[in-house]
């Protein structure tokens, strides 16, 4: 039988060798069973609650294509730590005839107790993740109450580690007991410029274009990107800065949380009740005055007309949303207005973010894509061919069902034939023995054969 191995570990703080350990356990089981391992899939430093793991999705796609017969895991938690996702995935794989074996926790999809086993294991895995999340949040709350910074590095500031010389880390150096913010003078000057230009009437896009024109590094210019286009300023970065009270020295923590949408699998930010917030004023972090921040806030409220949000590409969903790509910078084309698409980098960051100023009429590009579909895929000949193929698939399915029904134990088929002959002899009045006796004997043997 053909087997594949799926392995995973959760965070960058865990050992990369964990993948090798899991794979070794699975290969040992495959050798013991005589299975041929045809491929290995592994997701490194990815949480089990994320269903969009690339290798996980590749493994499922291969399973649905019938490329292997057995899925080997070290334990079920490597597959997923979401009990709903676990049940849906296992049912899909079992429906396609696959066997799932977890070497460490003993799960086997051919076991009679498999449903109880995976239900209990799935619940335990999900509770583990919830407990880990609560412990992490509790630890961060303790740091926040001590006045330490618990988030990432906001633009305009530096992260300063606080060391305790009486404690040592794993490398013998003074242990870091927390992190605080301190102002970055160069970036703070950019923040003040953004506020000044914004309250003077400049738009987010104009400010972003000006910063790009001056070659000012953006907040994301140091990110380790794999697919993102340029590292220039976008109007979204300007918008975040002019709305952040941290620049007035107002420190807030536990304001929001990310929750997973069960329909899309995406994590969305949700604001917590204000009673749960932890906030305090730290004047050493002030970059702009309260007056400047309030003026910017008033202007952001004036700009909150929903009809003006199309340029962001976040609100409206259209036929080609997320499918068109700029040939100059690889950014997505988004709806610039009701009638045309344009490069999002050009819209949000100006000419210095992307030199491509071409706009495409929405009706033209949609017609260019849909017309070939109508002419080729939905032509009468193609529709007739698809209908014929569907009919052939249905016939094959019926034939396969009939083949399974004829594959009953031979003895059971013979007993069915004897029952037919018995009915005929009873009808003609020529039984060899009492009818009730004959019927009871044959039906008893039929039940025994059917239970095999």
TrEMBL record:
InterPro entries: DNA_bind_recomb_sf, DNA_bind_recombinase_dom, Resolv_N, Resolvase-like_N_sf, SSR_resolvase, Zn_ribbon_recom_dom. CDD domains: Ser_Recombinase (cd00338). Transmembrane segments: none annotated. Residues 154-307 form the Recombinase domain. Residues 2-147 form the Resolvase/invertase-type recombinase catalytic domain. One of its GO terms (molecular function) is DNA binding. It holds the Pfam family Recombinase. This is Recombinase family protein. The lineage of its organism: Bacteria, Pseudomonadati, Pseudomonadota, Gammaproteobacteria, Steroidobacterales.
């Amino acid at each position: 039988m053909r087997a594949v191995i799926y392995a995973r570990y959760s965070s960058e703080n865990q050992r990369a060798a964990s993948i090798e350990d899991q794979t070794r356990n699975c290969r040992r089981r495959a050798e013991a069973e005589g299975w041929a391992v045809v491929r290995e899939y592994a997701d490194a430093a990815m949480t089990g609650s994320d269903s969009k793991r690339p290798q996980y999705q590749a493994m499922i796609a291969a399973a649905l294509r019938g490329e292997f017969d057995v899925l080997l895991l070290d334990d079920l938690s490597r597959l997923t730590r979401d009990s709903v996702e676990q049940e849906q995935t296992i049912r899909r794989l079992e429906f396609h005839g696959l066997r799932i074996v977890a070497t460490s926790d003993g799960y086997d999809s051919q076991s009679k107790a498999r449903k109880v086993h995976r239900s209990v294991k799935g619940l335990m895995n999900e509770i583990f993740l919830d407990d880990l999340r609560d412990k992490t949040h509790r630890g961060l709350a303790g740091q926040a109450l001590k006045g330490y910074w618990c988030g990432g590095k906001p633009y305009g500031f530096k992260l300063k580690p606080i060391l305790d010389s009486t404690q040592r880390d794993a490398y013998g150096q003074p242990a870091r007991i927390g992190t605080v913010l301190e102002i970055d003078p160069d970036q703070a000057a950019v923040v003040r410029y953004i506020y000044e230009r914004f309250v003077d009437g400049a738009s987010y896009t104009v400010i972003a274009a000006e910063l790009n024109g001056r070659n000012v590094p953006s907040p994301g210019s140091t990110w380790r990107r794999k697919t993102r286009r340029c590292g220039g300023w976008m109007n979204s970065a300007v918008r975040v800065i002019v709305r952040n009270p941290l620049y007035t020295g107002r420190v807030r923590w536990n304001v929001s949380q990310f929750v997973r949408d069960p329909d899309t699998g995406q994590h969305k930010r949700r604001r917590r009740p204000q009673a749960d917030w932890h906030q305090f004023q730290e004047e050493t972090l002030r970059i702009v005055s309260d007056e400047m921040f309030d003026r910017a806030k008033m202007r952001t409220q004036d700009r909150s007309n929903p009809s003006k949000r199309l340029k962001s590409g976040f609100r409206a969903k259209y036929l080609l949303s997320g499918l068109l790509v700029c040939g100059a910078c690889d950014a997505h084309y988004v709806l610039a207005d009701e009638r045309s698409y344009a490069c999002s980098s050009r819209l949000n960051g100006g000419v210095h973010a992307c030199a491509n100023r071409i706009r495409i009429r929405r009706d033209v590009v949609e017609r260019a894509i849909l017309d070939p579909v109508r002419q080729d895929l939905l032509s009468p000949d193609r529709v007739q061919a698809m209908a014929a193929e569907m009919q052939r698939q249905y016939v094959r399915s019926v034939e396969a069902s009939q083949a399974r029904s004829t594959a009953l134990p031979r003895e059971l088929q013979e007993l069915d034939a004897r029952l037919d002959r018995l009915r005929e002899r009873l009808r003609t009045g020529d039984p060899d023995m009492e009818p009730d006796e004959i019927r009871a004997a044959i039906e008893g043997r039929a039940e025994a054969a059917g239970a095999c």
